[in-house]
Write a structure and sequence with these properties.
alpha+beta; Jelly Rolls; 6-stranded antiparallel β-sheet; globular
Length: 310
Amino acid sequence: MMSTIHSNDANHQAANLINWQQEFDQLSQGHFVGVINELHFPHIHTFREETSHSLRQQCRVENGGFWLGFSANNKSCRINNEQTTANQFLCRPGNQDFELLTPDDFSIYGLVLHRSFFTELTEQTKEELYDNASDGLWLDNVSPEELNKFRQYLSLLLQPKGNNWSSKTHESIIQDAVLELLSKAQQTSAAHVTSPQRKRIMARVQEYLTESRMKSPITMSEICSAVHVSRRTLQYTFAQCYGISPKQYIQVIRLNQARRMLQSNEEFQTISEVAFNYGFFHLGQFCQSYKRLFGETPRQTLQQQSRLNG
């Protein structure tokens, strides 16, 4: 369950995040106001922190783990005296001190990945993601578009009114998205997969991705586990077979399924209901992706089908 914590003092704000050792110095003048919205999952702590005044933040994530943070309102900050941009994923390992200098009216999304998160992923993928991603102050190879999708998702997740998906589903989505980010930060050579191997892998993928399963959130970790391959091997196989990533493939299939539902519309569902039923949690993003693929909006599809049915 999401909790919201309000504060009228920078020192109190620093103490409100669990498993953090922090000290905040207020730099700009005026009455301080701070808010934290947070959710705790078994392996991940996610939050949005809003602060009204410029701060010098001395921070350390306790008990191991790993911190990822990025601007929630397109303002940039400094980390360890290095200027960042609003479209960078900042990162620091646990038990290491770091400093943030944040501006007035700053808002930041944060994810703290517990050590158990990396233990499970290392067992699944056989890749030492934690060691590879912990050297820099931010993650490389993450595009602004990918970060913005993550920003939209966390905005939905941390909204006060909640949403219809279970806590377990949300943790799976976050875990998969974070794993994708950390994988992109790795500089690794392409996997070698022979043609017979690709054929077997794709057959297992097609068997796994049934229509009913496509209506629920699907993570890369689930697919890798189901077809018994590493994430890198799956990425390479899709690139060789379809020229796109697994996530892009799943999105295209879902969009086509949603289009067929809109064209038949036997259950008289709204566009929002159809989008959600096929795993699109953000209606605006669904409509943009739909128009990009089909050259028309979902509403235009409904209108055209209505004329055909006369």
